[in-house]
Design brief:
five-stranded antiparallel beta sheet, disordered C terminus, 5 domains
Length: about 750
Amino acid sequence: MLDEVEGVVQGHRDGHGFVSRDDGASDIYLPPNEMRAVLHKDRVKVRIVRSDRKGRPEGRVVEIMERSTQPIIGRLLQESGVWLVAPEDKRYGQDVLIPKGATSAAKPGQVVVVELVEPPALFGQPVGRIKEVLGEVDDPGMEIEIAVRKYSVPHEFSDACIALARTLPDKVRPQDTLQRIDLTDIPLVTIDGEDARDFDDAVYCEPATKGRGKTALKGWRLLVAIADVSHYVETGSAIDVDAYDRATSVYFPRRVIPMLPEKLSNGLCSLNPEVERLCMVCDMFVTSEGEVDAYQFYPAVMWSHARFTYTEVAAILGNTRGPEASKRRDLVPQLLDLHGVYQALLKSRHKRGAVDFETTETQIVCDENGRIEKIVPRTRNTAHRLIEEAMLAANVCSADFIAQNKHPGLFRVHEGPTPEKQETLRNYLKASGIGMSISDKPAPGEFQAIAMATKDRPDAQQIHSMLLRSMSQAIYTPINSGHFGLAFDAYTHFTSPIRRYPDLLVHRVIKAILAKAKYQLPVLPTPGEAHAKLARRLEKNLAGRVAEPGTKPKKMNAEGTAWQAAGLHCSANERRADEASRDVEAWLKCKYMREHLGEEYAGVVSSATTFGLFVTLDAMYVEGLVHITELGGEYFRFDELRQELRGERTGIRYAIGTRVRIQVSRVDLDGRKIDFRLVQEGQSLQPRAVADKGAPREAKGRPEFADRVESDGGGAFKGKARQRASAKAPRSARANEKASGASKKAAKKQRR
């Protein structure tokens, strides 16, 4: 009997697709004819019918287990009297037919949300009805409206949640301060970014001594005060249900979709300056070597004495007699004490061998209409690191407090690299002649040692990138197995309950322990199918990691299962928020780069693949692809060990970190892709790029771009408006193959 497996369909813009298997094994290829009756994100059972020459499995759909309920976002078009919606996400592959009476109030060209009423069939396109009209494609913020629906991000609070939020007080009441420590005279301050609107952490530090005589320990008393969201958000309340559903705030350029209603996130729970606020405090004694020797948790009421920005604090620490310091003269001594405990905590970080790679994050600066003005690097200064170390210390104390009291809760777990990733990294380090490697059971310090030893090499960026790629993703789970990257035996999230649901749960657990009680999770909604695949994979990986080799994983009781479900839900929604944010940023960058078609820039290779090079521009921090067919008239072979492309005739090598000069040649808004051309010395490509600006072009060796047409003036859906197949019949596999035939020939030639 041939193998039959279940999984979720992942469509491809060329018409074929893949089945992402539940068991985590390699994806199964679905040819275009198999994709006719299914859509992206459908759950199916497939039979593996053959393997290609590289041993990759190809499947046939034998059963559609479950149709995706996620709405489709697209642009309403009318062709030959037939209404249809062209999906914004090209992975859906088929236009959706809209009956005349189901167009709502939408007008041609508008962006709409479609609900399917009939799924696709072998000889019929999907049929749907318009359930929401988002507006014109060029409306400011449309990319965000699309993303929140594309990724099913909850963006509207329930009526019950809004009604309950209205009943909350506008300020701290006298009865709220009962049985709390009064810290209003302690000069706690907040330190955040210039554009921050909610402040969930405040800090204070002073020199301290523990003990007496010769055994006395000198160090610091560090207070980390965190907004007490749990005082206002009761377990199981309407606000709590909405917060759990979101699990995290989602950050976009110019807009935030908060986890909590604004009355809480920006008002009652935000540690705004010079107002009373309720908080949970982690009160620590940190030795001069950066070890947290003692700590305690308690509820308190505080008064923020100042709202600092990172830039301001860094300037004060850099010059205590400068203009910034003169404005905050009374608080300068405390900032110096904070810097002192930071330096101590830094000693402990280095001693632990925690991984600390320097990466460049970017910030998109938009104007009032949502147009990108510039993309700037978000640099981390001393103030950023100071706050980071203080928050890490509080998080470690929280995890230790929960573990010591044997209370169930959520830990932030980061596993070390898998054996497969370890082997890949060892081979790369050996091929690169670094002279250092990792052991069979590597410690974080080994990664940090390699990073430090190679930081001055020309290929340092490439090496650090490979070290990062070997890492796993962190998840929330009730089973504590430590945090590899930070080199902590136990770690959790305590410091951001305004924007992360796991932090809110940690606060509730800590309060229950202090009250000598036990916190019971409410009956929480089941995660949607959109994240079920990730949940299954996380669950499978978790079960395999927590058990010692040769032993069976322990079965969880009902309580443990509930905590694990909460952790899986929060982990999945964290990924969802990241994907939605990246999608919007990618669209904005594409829109921005359309204004720079034909221009030349210097950049650095950020990734090498079998099909080309990804290059990040120095001036704009935008990444684009130089396809392998644009590298010159010779065959390039991808060296997986060295992660580079090498020309067989000339021996020229392109690896991560290689500096190149490129020209912006094409921008695909629909696919969120930017194409570059490599500019050879003395070569002029300006006329060629200008000619491409408004005309379709066959992209050599790139089937996914073969049927692409440039947009005519902005908007996410103008790419293929004039290339729609007839609405009366589905697009055939033969038509798809014909459309990309020339590209496939070029690709085949390249493979040889």
